[in-house]
Amino acid sequence: MSGSAGEVKPDAALGLEGIPHTGEGVTSDGHLIEPQAEDFRHARQAPEDADWFKRAVFYEVLVRAFADSSSDGTGDLRGLASRMDYLQWLGVDCLWLPPFYASPLRDGGYDISDFRAVLPDFGTVDDFVYVLDEAHRRGIRVITDLVLNHTSDAHPWFQASRSDPDGPYGDFYVWGDDDQKYPDARIIFVDTESSNWTYDPVRGQFYWHRFFSHQPDLNYENPEVQEAMLDVLRFWLDLGIDGFRLDAVPYLFEQEGTNCENLPHTHEFLKKCRKVVDDEFPGRVLLAEANQWPSDVVAYFGDPEVGGDECHMAFHFPLMPRLFMAVRRENRFPISEILAQTPAIPAGCQWGIFLRNHDELTLEMVTDDERDYMYAEYAKDPRMKANIGIRRRLAPLLDNDRNQQELFNAMLLSLPGSPVLYYGDEIGMGDNIWLGDRDGVRTPMQWTPDRNAGFSSCDPNRIYLPVNADPVYGYQAVNVEAHLNNNSSLLHWTRRMIEVRKQHPAFGLGDFTELGSSNPSILAYIRTYSADGAADTVVCVNNLSRFPQPVELHLGEFEGCVPVELTGGVRFPAIGELPYLLTLPGHGFYWFQLTAATDEGEAP
Amino acid sequence: MTSSPTEVITELADALREWLPTQRWFAGKDRPVESVRPVHAVSLVDGDPALLHSVIEVRQNGSADRYQLLLGLRADLPEHLGHAWIGTRAQLACYDATQDTELTGLLLDLIARGETHAGLDFQHEPGAELEIALRSRPVGAEQSNTSLVYGHHYILKLFRKLVTGTNPDLTLHRALRTQRCEHIAEPLGAIQGSLNGEEVTFGMLQRFLPDAADGWAMATASVRDLMAEGDLHPDEVGGDFAGEARRLGQAVAEVHADLAAALGSGSEGSDLLDRTVDAMQRRLDAVLASVPELGAHEAGLRSAFDAARELSEPIAVQHIHGDLHLGQVLRTVLGWVLIDFEGEPAAPAAERLSLRSPLRDVAGMLRSFDYAAHQLLVGHPGGSGAEDQLTVRALEWARRNRDAFCDGYAEKAEDPREHAVLLRALELDKAVYEVAYEHGNRPEWLAVPLSSIARITGS
User: Fold this and answer.
1) Cα distance between residue A552 and residue B203, in whole Å
2) ipTM of the complex
3) For the CA atoms of A568, A569, A571, A572, what is the dihedral angle to 10 degrees?
4) Does domain B102-207 have CATH number 3.30.9?
5) What DSSP string runs through A258-325?
6) pLDDT computed for residue B1 by the predictor
7) What is the second-level CATH architecture of the domain A154-208?
8) Quick check: A156 pLDDT over 70?
9) B213-457 belongs to which CATH class?
């Protein structure tokens, strides 16, 4: 029946006329013709480095929000490419782009309607290759989100599946005659969905969806689905992308009598993805988005015997709310506890850690008590609550307190894991809580005090979201240009800290040991890394209290070493027999490298 | 060495009389030292440095107390040990060897090997495997004993003032270990010996908790946060402590349950109440005689104590901690841990070993919350409106956290507030003791227990 006259074409809903996309044509056996990597120019490769992701500073940037090259009010890929010098200057190593695929945008682009086409607002696949090229030229890598679990209901695969149950896509989704199967799977979006099944009048059956009803789950029991998704990976990897953040990985498979999360089959498929990367694209990475307790997330790294054979990285979710809680409590235990509960990970793996990202401050992983506490502390205005999180940017979350912003960033850059910065936080951008849903933290990047904050030259009324214009965080005061012109700005500070971090492999690659002390307001730890006979030992001391604090650190095993403060190079008194006494200003921190004692170099 | 260990101590007696009152752990600082004589002295290490282990008898005002002394002897005392110097004899510097890491490492090695050495019995607990040759360091700020930390692993507490019989600290820790109690620092070994045929505990080795912060520091960080806000209530500020207080209550209740399971429990009637209340009244008599400020509260105190005498239901008794307060609990990443089960150091040994109501421990902790709440107000210039405001906040903090502690306790055992009359009497008795202590030691703190007494008795 495919291709017959009068039939609605499966790509009818996409709005991708004139650019290569899935379903432009159909093969004689009914398969949709999809764009191939060979159809496009490929980007130059980033320099080879197997461990790059362990040392990297990541930067999450929303294409829509960063820079608009076409003056249509929406940021785009060419705009992002035009700001690459800034990102290189800042010192970030890898950009993480949330989805930029073709999408009806009913879930922020996570509802993908074509895995092989770019959202026309953002540009084209060729524009993406240009971004990659510009980034790689500067030693910056790029990863993006890929949603494995589901597609948009506008995806030609789904359109074919619903209209032709016996065709090649008939079994691409999870269909059922009733809505009774898998009753133990929880409903994730409790605010909007009442069931994981929705009736499709076209096919006359129910389809399975763990997220929104417009996002049908792919049927991974079908080997053709697995192959099709592996080919999606290959498509972008061929073009030169450096990796993927795999969205919603725990939900790929279903099994009766289970909660349909973290099933063994899901891990088997991730191992297949990893094998494609290792065999065909070495040096590229997979990052798991599994919003779970660390002891459960480690499963997504795979077999520790071989250094991990699933994802290279996974986000450490519970650490982030604990950082905020610890500083509010002026007490290290919320952080110490979660780090103590974090299991060791395989040798080839790394955590991703963050303070804020495009989603809310995630509270799924804290206990009810802690969730109540976080709400009470951070969301006094009920409009700041969404689902189960809190919609604020870092600066307003910390009452715009510069000392606290520095302390939080210092912890982010020194705790175990690769830090992920969120665009705009390096200049202390604010949020706009009066915008709906999660848009409050997705306003345009503030580049200059000019029209539209230098983000776009469009008519201000045309901009996708208003630029932040409030008296404290508005673009006239808070913008990249102003920060560049002020040497003591948060932006310059952030850049210097990233630079310091890069000089010390201990931050990215080192072991982590907490140094206890009798002062509960002090969080101190030691990062050590040894390679080729040289050791890099860094001691980090953080004052979680707003008041000055003393601390005595037990550094006896380093007796005779001299701590050298990392931002200024000042040599502190050598470590002696007695506990090492430090005093810290409120919300202050120190990073020291421990060096063997040598002469100060004074003239004889 | 030409002199025997006993002779060395005897020759040092005058130096020791000078030195003892300067030591924090010396219990008799308020009275002159009449004489010091060795009752036991052996050599643990010969050569230079040499190490002697001895017990000295210190006579003061007719009382004779025994203290443990580890004495180092060196021809040249290095500068970093200068603070440990006691005296010099026969061209050898004699000093407190607990400060000398070159000598103290031996103690751990002997415990690990389980050796009997020079009449001292070095033991490790069954199943405990110990690393040896760890670097040791003395712990600062300790009240009545001297502790050494080995690496990040172990802590060896050397008891200073000795009691005959196995030290209750060791007895109770061993009992709790049999229950796999999670709220203690695991006991790993001991140094025991005998004096005149009676067993004596010289030291106890435990797992060291390097990540721990004590409850007092935790609680006062919370109070500090509250006081800095001024216009917020304790449940509204970031430093709220109620969650910690509740978990602490749970921990104390679990320790009590484990002690009862391991060492038994009993039930007492009016005899115990009579004895308890008699002791309270006697203590009150004594303190009233020396602290006139307490007089205003005498009637309220006496009637609160006597109310306890009228209780008809039997009182559950068991082994308890005996000196529980926020300084005796540690917060670790795994939760709360109780330390120092020696009991009140000043109390007679028989009392420390007897079965007592676990409400005593609860009362001690409730008093400690009051102290923590008020400590920042000590020394404040009085009478200003701002101070009144802070006083209100302090009271709110204490009430919130005392309640949270009892809530937590009640989640694991009977709610202590079910025994309000006895709990009140025990708390007041403790406060009377505090009045005496503050009067003698820290007069500026006297208002803390006095105001609590006024509040509890409603006078």
Assistant:
1) 26
2) 0.85
3) 40
4) no
5) S-SSS-HHHHHHHHHHHHHHHHHSTT-EEEE---S-HHHHGGGG--GGGT-SS-SEEE-TTHHHHHHH
6) 47
7) Alpha-Beta Complex (3.90)
8) yes
9) alpha beta
- Tell me the residue ranges of DSSP E strands in A205-268: 205-208, 243-247
The tokens of A170 are what?
């008939």
Give me the architecture of the A52-151+220-501 domain, per CATH: Alpha-Beta Barrel (3.20)
Tens digit of each residue's pLDDT (9 = 90 or more) over A169-197: 999 999 999 999 999 888 888 778 889 99
CA separation for the pair B447, B454 (Å, rounded): 10
Q: Do B224 and A547 touch (CB under 8 A)?
A: yes
Give the architecture-level CATH label for domain A510-595: Sandwich (2.60)
> What's the rounded Cα separation, in Å, for the pair B395 and B223?
11
Question: pLDDT-derived band of residue B163, with 50, 70 and 90 as boundaries?
Answer: confident
User: Across the interface, which of A337, A369, A546 has its CB nearest the CB of B243?
Assistant: A369
Is the confidence at residue B128, as pLDDT, over 70? Answer: yes
Q: Give whole-number Cα distances, B332 to A325, A432, A518, B249, in Å.
A: 17, 40, 11, 15
Distance CA B22, CA B72 (A): 18
Domain positions in chain A are 52-151+220-501, 154-208, 510-595
Work out how many CB contacts closer than 8 A connect A with B: 70
**CA-CA distance, A189 to A110, in Å (whole number)?**
14
User: Which chain A residues contact residue B238 at CB under 8 A?
Assistant: 327-330, 377
* Of residues B31, B51, B33, the one with CA closest to residue B41: B51
Q: Does A512 touch chain B (CB under 8 A)?
A: no
Model confidence pLDDT, tens digit, residues B232-250: 888 777 788 988 999 999 9
Residues 6+ apart with CB under 8 A from B133: B105, B109
Q: What is the pLDDT of residue A282?
A: 94
| Both structure tokens of A174 | 């999870």
